[in-house]
Amino acid sequence: MSSRRIASSLLTTPAATTVSSVRFTQHTPKLCTSSSDPRHRFHQLSQHAPAPKVLITGGLGQLGRSLANVLKYMYGPDSVVLSDIARRPAGHDHLSPFCYINILDKTSVEAAVVNNNIDTLIHFSALLSAVGESNVPLALKVNGQGVENVLEVARTYNLKVFIPSTIGAFGPTTPRDGTPDITVQRPRTIYGVTKVYAELLGEYYFERFGTDFRSLRFPGVISDTNPGGGTTDYAIQIFYDAILKGSHECYLRPDTELPMVYDTDCMTSVIQLLLAPAEKLSLRTYNIQGFSFTPEQIAAVIRKRMPEFEMTYKVCPMRQKIADSWPRSLDDTNARHDWNWDPKYDLEKTADIMFELLTAKLLPPQPKLATL
């Protein structure tokens, strides 16, 4: 994923050019090339407001690293503090600033906020769907108590707080096609149950204490980062396997349709929501939809680029049951209306960029032929 690409696209969207938020505004004069460039107007709006100072929990995961890269590009290298319960890998100085946080220890979250002058807290720490089912007690602690600690710190220190939700917050009694923002939510996984809890608790903190809580229900997120234990992760692993092995064994049925979003669009949605003026928001939690597909459809798209690619199926009953309880598509009308959500990547474009990124990442560079 290109941080420059995301930041530049954000600066040319209608939502970005009308933002007057004080605590989360753009400050990148090097991007403003002329007075006719829409980015120039955005820079003018930001000149009288400070750049945010953002703390990201779960910062070493798929979403944390991606978002940190974009925010650092937009606001400078010291604007984001990554945190995780895992230690920063040796030789990864680009992940600085970094601090250790146990999300179950509220004092460690408070210390990171106070010591780094944080005004925006992005909470990515969570056990995902398949991993959560294998360790329910831990998922209850991390996904439940962790949210409680984050919201209480946000209330105490008057922080803007973003906590993502998921399609897993819906269940088998939810309308599966064009699922609206407000509908039946009776999930059948501990991950989904804790995410509904996060949505409701965040909205309570907003109504009761005025805490600026914002959330998005992410579909499956496709990126070049290694999968992290979610039910939609096959949509990432399939590209790794295609490049390295020429085949993929899928744990879902060929006809299992699920909503997805490409990483660049996902990061854009987070920043757009954070930039949106409070008076524009009609909800605290929004759906976002990129595109939907089945395993057999993504396999066909890969075969256009690799005709020899082979797809086999070994259905995992647990993951299939989870997928069958989730929406096939989401209605994101409110996000489009309130803060101009407008995804740019479809399945074909996503496949192109995934092959480009993973080929460079996984395969050794071809030696150049000597010229006489």
UniProtKB/TrEMBL annotation:
GO terms for biological process: L-threonine catabolic process. Residues 54-288 form the NAD-dependent epimerase/dehydratase domain. It catalyses: L-threonine + NAD(+) = (2S)-2-amino-3-oxobutanoate + NADH + H(+). SUPFAM superfamilies: NAD(P)-binding Rossmann-fold domains (SSF51735). Its EC number is 1.1.1.103. GO terms for molecular function: L-threonine 3-dehydrogenase activity. Pfam families: Epimerase (PF01370). Pathway: Amino-acid degradation; L-threonine degradation via oxydo-reductase pathway; glycine from L-threonine: step 1/2. It comes from the Eukaryota. PANTHER family: L-THREONINE 3-DEHYDROGENASE (PTHR42687), L-THREONINE 3-DEHYDROGENASE, MITOCHONDRIAL (PTHR42687:SF1). Belongs to the NAD(P)-dependent epimerase/dehydratase family. Catalyzes the NAD(+)-dependent oxidation of L-threonine to 2-amino-3-ketobutyrate, mediating L-threonine catabolism. This is L-threonine 3-dehydrogenase, mitochondrial. It comes from Panagrellus redivivus. The lineage of its organism: Eukaryota, Metazoa, Ecdysozoa, Nematoda, Chromadorea.
